[in-house]
Design a protein that fits this description.
Length: 113
């Protein structure tokens, strides 16, 4: 893309329909992040990535509002991977792993080695 005006046009085209479904906060945050040129490139690529993956992730991104949240999430994951991982760490700790059939099969296979 090139220049702030081209980005604003690119960005507006991508989020205009999403604003109808809400996502105003995410839109505001993405625009604010995009004020810095190096971060604008991250936001642009995050939007492109979500657009690209949407056909196979439509189960998770069924509404434009969710696509916007995903764009913001991808942007933040790139900018602050350690902070994002601490949230993931909390999620990992909240899972009842002892009830997982997948892990049970895995450990059974390890025992047989």
């Amino acid at each position: 893309m090139g220049g702030k005006d081209n980005f604003r046009s690119f960005f507006s085209d991508k989020i205009q329909s999403a604003m109808v479904d809400s996502g105003a906060l995410e839109t505001l945050l993405l625009e604010a992040i995009s004020e810095k040129e190096e971060d604008r490139a991250i936001v642009e690529r995050s939007i492109s990535y979500i657009d690209e993956i949407h056909p196979i992730a439509s189960k998770y991104l069924s509404k434009n509002r969710l696509k916007l949240k995903a764009c913001l999430g991808v942007t933040w994951a790139i900018q602050y991977p350690e902070k994002l991982f601490s949230f993931i760490d909390e999620q990992i700790r909240s899972v009842k792993w002892e009830e997982s059939k997948v892990l049970e099969r895995c450990f059974e296979q390890l025992k047989s080695i």
